[in-house]
Amino acid sequence: MLTEISRVGDIAVLKLLHARFDASIAPKIKSEIVALIEQGERKLVLDLQCVQFVDSSGLGAMVSIFKALGGKGDIVLCRVAEGVHSMLRLTRMDRVFTIDDDAVAACARLGA
Amino acid sequence: MTRAPTASGARRCGAGLADVAVLEPLGPTVRWQARERFAANLAELPRLGAWARSSCERCAPSSAWLDAIEISVVEAASNIMRHGFGSSSGSNACDIATAGGTSNAHAALIVVTLRCFETWLSVDLLDTGRPAPDGLFSVDTPVFGFDPDDLANLPEGGMGVAIIRASVDLLEYRRRLGVNRLRLIKRRG
Known about the structure:
The complex is a heterodimer. By secondary structure, chain A is of the alpha/beta class. Helix content of chain A is 38%, strand content 26%.
């Protein structure tokens, strides 16, 4: 299992369960989450508490998920480890994604 | 070939690609060395990254330095697996070997060597996959120049080499007798 899904109202909270979000699993995670979007999900919280490492494939998957919302929804990251945050800053992806400390704050931002 | 000493005591020479400098140590003062083989298969990427990180912990001046080493090694290996051998999630080494131009499944390997010197770490990734495209490691590779507000044009890939360049001090690629060698060098402290 790659993700654990919970709900807060109309918000899907997706907790990634793998410590390494890299090219070995990024395509599968992307497919799973894009499928949820195609089923109608529009507000997503990506809980990265378990994730200690993200490579360019993991970043690309997150961008693909964001694009799949097509401007009709939103995604917020939460519980981002410092090493992952550094990677987001290095690639300027911290200017693309909104990052909150925890899922409660992320859901509040999305209007829970 | 021009040679000039650097502050670290190593010589800088113009061997290799015209836009890449290679640091050659004046003397063989390797503090430690570690080498491991990995199948050129994306399923090996987590083990490769964890091995690189744990091996370098003994000489890491900071956790940020260690993060940089880990990401650069993983990105380099990922590129080799995907582009040098045509690996994708779920494919196996036997299929990859043929794509890499070899007929021996056992040749679909990446050999990673870590060498810690007094003031820097070198990482060599050797493989027998397809050669890297000309100019891939050029210093002119654009770095993260996207508009964060332009959703449609946000990059979904192609950031690997830029990440490597931003994470290490020197990068050298060469291919000889069918073997690719990607060398990454990062100063320690």
